[in-house]
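pinging the channel bc i need a second pair of eyes. not urgent but kinda urgent?? the chain im working w is below, pasted from the shared doc
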Amino acid sequence: MIMSPLRYHPRLLIGLMLFSLLVSGVLATDAPEVGESAPDFRLQDQTGEWRSLDDYRGKWLALYFYPKDDTPGCTTEACEFRDNIFAFREIGAEIVGVSLDDVESHREFAEKYHLPFTLLSDPDGEIARTYGVLKNIGPVKFARRESFLIDPEGKIAKHYPEVDPDGHSEEVLADLTALQTAG
């Protein structure tokens, strides 16, 4: 009878389990906390222009991360932000989407759905990692669907760790309005 080596090596089993957690992204970087400074970024948008967090100083920013351009949930979320763009602009807020897709993919996605806001390309996942939203499933990396409201001074005002793409834009708009009224 052949015995499994894992049966006799519990440390090996525990090591393999920890390794699989690391590879799967479960032990990813923590998201910044409410009240902390938002991590800076310097990424290209769908037109190839470089953008940074400083470009949004003095304004409220809805920074939303999403997994993939032109997929059902991501399209729903982007189109709802598009449909509410005038309400966001009326209260002085900007919308910025971020995924690991390249600039060309963002350009095509923005053109196809007439998205009037910035989409940032984070191909290496560095910014997604600093915001604690980078997910790995084996060799595949993507940004988890999470959002952050950043105040005009560059501080995290609200974090949405669980996002339903259907209705998220309305939720963010209502929270922005409440935060501005309370401030």
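so The domain at 31-182 is CATH 3.40.30.10 (Glutaredoxin). and The chain is about 35% helix and 25% strand. — does that match what u expected or am i reading it wrong
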